[in-house]
Design goal:
The structure is a single chain. With 110 residues, the protein is mostly beta strands. It has one domain. It is built from 1 helix and 8 strands, in the order ββββββββα. The strands form 2 sheets. A 4-stranded mixed sheet has the order 1-2-3-4, with no helix packed on it. It is globular. It starts with 6 loop residues before the first strand and ends with a helix.
Length: 110
């Protein structure tokens, strides 16, 4: 069953057994971890640092992660965003190569 909301739980160290629907955050470890929101029970590890590309935003109650979570190496291949504790599902299974946007020149003169 898909998970639609993740509760925030700040911890010193990540517990051995993760609960469904909980986003564990270790500031000392610079990591966020949760069970995949698709329900497949795989652990999703998100390193929190500019170097690894994920940013964590905490508003005092809920967490947002940016960019999205793309579990391409999992059999489920789930793709979603975590925004204010809510799981926002991507409609695509895997992003295709981005189409090149036309330049302003092409838009105006073609």
């Amino acid at each position: 069953m898909k998970i639609m909301h993740l509760e925030s739980n700040f911890v010193e160290t990540i517990p051995e057994k993760l609960e469904d629907g909980v986003l564990y955050v270790s500031i000392p470890g610079l990591v966020a971890i949760h069970k995949c929101a698709c329900g497949c029970a795989r652990d999703v590890v998100t390193p929190i640092s500019a170097e690894h590309g994920w940013i964590l935003i905490f508003d005092g109650e809920n967490i947002s992660l940016s960019p999205s979570i793309g579990n391409w190496s999992f059999p489920c291949r789930s793709h979603y965003w975590i925004r204010n504790g809510e799981v926002k599902w991507c409609k695509e299974e895997r992003p295709s190569k981005k189409k090149k946007r036309p330049s302003l020149w092409q838009k105006w003169f073609h």
